[in-house]
Design a protein that fits this description.
Chain lengths: 297, 315
């Protein structure tokens, strides 16, 4: 690559800096290398995570440190996956329950809300919508203490219900779907209405299938948000058997101090797998979704 | 819409008819509305009453009380707010929050913009590949990232110090030092959030019509010139959006400071302070007051940013 670029630059002795910028190949190669270097730098912590999780307990804290395990072992994985020795398997179930519940409820309530606020007529509709939207102005941190008190009154402390309830509706999701439904031709709705469909029927048979692109983008964000959530579950849950995955990782790390780091590493790898799978499956929607959600906001 | 047009009262007739006619029309509009919409509206109203109105009201009420969960709440007027202004821990936390937020956002957004710019020069599947790598920290649970970095930051035997000493640089205390801890944590958060900015900015840059760059090139504009004159103004909405969202996000950042405790109060931000007041010190009234102050500050910051942006836009 370098030689071709050189032979191109030689015959034209105008400002070499200008040449370097105009001739695409040089810049592209340099940019490519810089990006490659930084992607390695970004990935560097993960390499440590992965290799350390295959080390033995003595190996992981031995000096001088080496990246590669002296002896490869699955011991840490077997330990954290054993329900009698670690609570990670239970936390896995808890996390999946809460995350699935949140994703399903948000997708249903958002698509319904998007359709209702965009197409159906009833008194106070726009006021209600602006109210729902305005709730996002108050940061969660401000609601943390009083919301905890409300959950205590509702007897939802230390239960997965308490983690789920505040995220049944998402004002962001409703807003996003409303924008999307505005893009669906009104004639479709009118035609179905004339054919005698009820509003719920129209929602189920026409709107829901058509909003799939925005819903799949929304699903990813809701999944990540619910799966990785830390503060709210921390406040609500305290019994060891009810904790979600991020909480159990923190507990493991704090309990073992510095002595059992390979278990934390193995647990971390296992916890990172579900988001990774979701990411790899929905990668296309992901990038488009961020663009969609970000630019419309 | 149809209900309004159908109704005789809206045609601009006798004024005395209006009060009764309007009540009639609201009632009729309710009856005409589909039960589906009404049930949904009722549900969403109940939900936000429980999850938003009651807690927000309770929070405001609580900010004027002294309460520790056990004894009866006692009204103390504005004392919680005046206390915040003389509380050195509050100011300390505010200082850490502002430092963290400003550095995280300015550095994070600049790096993300540069990366997006570089990525826009790479076309096709490599662009996707790099994007995925940069996005990986975003999808990794933050708790995992935090413990991983904590492990890498260890003063003795940590990967970073091993790296430093292998190239002949002095080893650093990182999290053990009150001066470095905050910046060490800031770096973790920048790393963890960089991907979001890159993807957003790249989408913005890719949306700029190629013909504009073409024209600029014909007029003799260099790469940076066309970046500052074309790309930057056109992706400004994305930039402002990301800035507003980042301010709200960084001020509320909790996990990083909770799970990586720096020495003393060197990394205690407002988010952590609120949590500790509410759930450790059980000083609920004061905690609620501090969290209300955070709300007002964030609201002010958001309005300020949006207004400044609009003024710039008009020019």
């Amino acid at each position: 690559m370098a030689t071709t670029a050189d032979s191109r630059t030689l015959p034209a002795p105008i400002s070499p800096f200008r040449r370097w910028i105009i001739s695409g190949k040089w810049t592209k190669a340099v940019v490519f290398l810089i990006l490659a270097f930084f992607s390695f730098a970004m990935f560097y912590p993960f390499i440590w995570l992965l290799f350390s999780s295959f080390k033995t307990g003595a190996d992981i804290v031995s000096l001088p440190v080496s990246l590669l395990p002296k002896k490869w072992t699955l011991g840490a994985y077997l330990m954290v996956m054993d329900p009698t020795r670690a609570n990670l398997p239970i936390a896995y179930v808890n996390s999946i329950i809460v995350t699935t519940g949140t994703v399903i409820s948000v997708l249903i309530t958002s698509s319904m809300g998007g359709f209702i606020f965009a197409r159906l007529e009833f008194p106070g509709r726009d006021y209600l919508f602006y109210f729902v939207l305005s709730t996002t102005m108050v940061p969660f941190l401000t609601l943390l203490i009083p919301l905890y008190i409300v959950m205590r009154e509702l007897n939802l402390l230390n239960s997965l219900w308490g983690v789920w309830v505040p995220s049944i509706f998402s004002s962001f999701g409703v807003f996003l779907c409303r924008q999307f439904v505005y893009g669906i031709p009104r004639e479709l709705y009118d035609a179905a209405k004339i054919d005698g469909s009820g509003d719920f029927g129209i929602y189920r048979n026409i709107i829901l299938p058509l909003t799939k692109p925005i819903l799949s983008a929304l699903a990813i964000f809701v999944f990540l948000g619910a799966f990785n959530a830390y503060l709210w579950p921390l406040v609500i849950l305290n019994e060891e058997k009810k904790l979600t995955l991020p909480l159990i990782i923190a507990r493991m790390a704090n309990r073992f101090g510095g002595t059992d780091y390979q278990a934390v590493m193995a647990g971390s790898v296992l916890v990172s797998i579900p988001p990774l799978i979701v990411f790899l499956i929905f990668q296309k929607n992901f990038v488009r979704g961020i663009a969609l959600t970000g630019l419309k906001g | 819409m149809t209900t309004l047009q159908d109704h005789p009262a809206t045609g601009g007739q006798a004024l005395q008819q209006l009060p009764t006619a309007r009540r009639d029309s609201v009632w009729r509009r309710f009856r005409r509305a589909s039960p589906f919409a009404l049930i949904y509206s009722a549900a969403i109203l109940v939900f936000y009453t429980i999850i938003f109105i009651i807690p927000f009201g309770t929070g405001i009420w609580l900010a004027f009380q002294n309460w520790d969960f056990i004894t009866n709440p006692k009204f103390v007027g504005l004392r919680n707010f005046t206390k915040a202004f003389t509380d050195q821990y509050f100011w300390q936390a505010l200082e850490k929050t502002v430092l963290f937020s400003v550095v995280e956002i300015s550095l994070g957004l600049t790096i993300a913009l540069l990366f997006a710019l570089a990525l826009s020069q790479v076309i096709g599947k490599w662009q996707n590949f790099y994007l995925s790598v940069y996005y990986l920290p975003v999808i990794t649970p933050l708790v995992v990232s935090i413990y991983l970095w904590r492990w890498l930051y260890r003063p003795t035997g940590g990967a970073f110090n091993t790296l430093l000493s292998s190239v002949g640089l002095p080893e650093q205390p990182f999290l053990a030092s009150p001066q470095q801890a905050l910046w060490a944590i800031t770096l973790v958060v920048i790393w963890a959030h960089l991907g979001t900015g890159i993807v957003l900015f790249l989408a913005g840059i890719n949306d700029v019509p190629e013909s504009l760059f073409e024209a600029a090139r014909l007029d003799g504009a260099g790469f940076w010139q066309s970046f500052f004159r074309i790309t930057l103004p056109l992706i400004r909405p994305v930039l402002v959006y990301q800035m507003v969202v980042s301010v709200i996000g960084t001020v509320q950042m909790f996990e990083a400071f909770f799970l990586i405790p720096g020495p003393g109060f060197s990394t205690r931000t407002l988010a952590l302070y609120t949590y500790e007041l509410g759930f450790r010190a059980l000083n609920l009234g004061y905690g609620a007051a501090v969290s209300l102050i955070i709300f007002i500050m964030l609201l002010g910051a958001t309005v300020f940013q949006l207004r400044r942006w609009r003024i710039e836009w008009e020019h």
